[in-house]
């Protein structure tokens, strides 16, 4: 209520001031008319009363015009768009306050300069000339371009004609809207799409390799189907871990737990994992998940996890000074006596080839009677590589 009264009082004051200005201007005109007729200040006016009303009406209209012009000026000043009025040849004739603030050099003179030449890139200057030509022909020209070099802002520019009394273009209107945030979002989306396409291709290549290796080493079609399904599930679990890390990195502990989860029963204490917090890149996450899946599958069929008393421990540590190394150890115990396999399967080839070739480390897989032992050592930087 207080704000409403204040607005009303302010509006009343503005109206009083406007009326006072009108009366003063009317009195001035009357004085001029008396001076022209040679009459004293208090003499009768030679102007009919109707003309006095017309003078008052004219002043009223002038006051309204001035108020409208002031409002238009405030409206343009409030706009964050760069608004410029151009001559037909593209010379800047008028520039809004928002346009001056958006200029790369706001203190440089703009009026009288060539608008198209203000765009720094030659290709953008050509686009600006094309937009000017379209506007001169009565159409609308539009393009998107950056301004500045240090921290460029992107602009969506629309150029249209200002029609004259005869309906032909008299001047040109160039309105540029800041779309920097939208442009950056579009660039980020394009980058993500490229990254997704790259990862899909690599994942399909990995699935193809897993399928080929599975069929090559399986004794029967049913065995191949079972092994292939298990490996696909391991890849799926690894992808879940990566998704939680936005495909940038994943914690080694989460990778180990995810790979082991399908192979553990409800009995507590059969599996233990310990080590410092280590982030891994997408490529090493997929490879390690498959490797741990193969070790856990063999342990469930022939090793420690095939016996109620069997245990599996996965430990890791960081070592080295000049080059930090990741050392990971898989050790089984408490299960039936084990013996080295008579032929190497998919898991053995994955461990001995993929890890060594991909990450430049070394790995050993031994089968003492008390349980299988796998030891891996690889440069941490290679394991944290962001490619997948």
Automatic annotation (TrEMBL):
Name of the protein described by the UniProt record: histidine kinase
SMART domains in UniProt: HWE_HK (SM00911)
Source organism of this protein record: Methylobacterium currus
Region (Disordered): 1-20
Keyword Metal-binding applies: no
SUPFAM superfamilies in the record: PYP-like sensor domain (PAS domain)
EC number: 2.7.13.3
Alphabetized GO MF terms: ATP binding; protein histidine kinase activity
Record Pfam families: HWE_HK (PF07536), PAS_4 (PF08448)
Keyword ATP-binding: yes
Coiled-coil residue windows: none
Catalysis: reaction(s): ATP + protein L-histidine = ADP + protein N-phospho-L-histidine
Gene3D superfamilies named among the record's database cross-references: Histidine kinase-like ATPase, C-terminal domain, PAS domain
Domain Signal transduction histidine kinase HWE region: 195-277
Swiss-Prot/TrEMBL keywords: ATP-binding, Kinase, Nucleotide-binding, Phosphoprotein, Transferase
């Amino acid at each position: 209520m207080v704000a409403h009264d204040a607005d009303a009082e302010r509006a009343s004051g503005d109206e009083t001031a406007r009326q006072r200005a009108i009366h003063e201007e009317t009195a001035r005109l009357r004085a001029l008319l008396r001076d022209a007729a040679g009459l004293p200040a208090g003499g009768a006016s030679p102007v009919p009363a109707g003309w006095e009303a017309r003078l008052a009406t004219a002043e009223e209209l002038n006051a309204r015009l001035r108020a409208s012009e002031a409002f238009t000026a405030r409206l343009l000043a409030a706009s964050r768009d760069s608004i410029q009025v151009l001559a037909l040849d593209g010379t800047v004739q008028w520039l809004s306050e928002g346009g001056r603030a958006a200029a790369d050099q706001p203190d440089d003179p703009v009026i009288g300069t060539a608008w198209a030449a203000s765009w720094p890139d030659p290709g953008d200057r050509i686009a600006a000339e094309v937009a000017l030509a379209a506007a001169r022909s009565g159409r609308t020209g539009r393009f998107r371009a950056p301004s500045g070099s240090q921290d460029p802002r992107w602009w969506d520019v629309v150029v249209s004609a200002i029609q004259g009394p005869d309906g032909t273009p008299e001047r040109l209107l160039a309105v540029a809207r800041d779309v920097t945030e939208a442009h950056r979002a579009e660039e980020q989306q394009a980058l993500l799409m490229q990254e997704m396409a790259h990862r899909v291709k690599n994942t399909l290549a990995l699935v193809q390799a897993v399928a080929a290796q599975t069929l090559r080493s399986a004794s029967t079609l049913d065995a191949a189907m079972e092994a292939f399904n298990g490996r696909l599930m391991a890849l799926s679990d690894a992808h879940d871990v990566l998704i939680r890390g936005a495909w940038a990195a994943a914690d080694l502990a989460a990778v180990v737990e995810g790979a082991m989860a399908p192979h553990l029963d409800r009995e507590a204490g059969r599996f233990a994992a310990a080590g410092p917090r280590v982030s891994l890149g997408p490529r090493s996450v997929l490879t390690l998940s498959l490797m741990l899946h193969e070790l856990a599958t063999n342990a469930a069929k022939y090793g420690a996890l095939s016996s109620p008393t069997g245990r599996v421990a996965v430990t890791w540590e960081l070592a080295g000074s000049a080059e930090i190394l990741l050392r990971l150890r898989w050790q089984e115990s408490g299960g039936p006596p084990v013996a080295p396999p008579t032929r190497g399967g998919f898991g053995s080839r994955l461990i001995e080839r993929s890890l060594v070739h991909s990450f430049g480390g070394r790995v050993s897989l031994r089968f003492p009677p008390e349980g299988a032992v796998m030891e891996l050592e690889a440069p941490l930087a290679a394991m944290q590589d962001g490619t997948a």
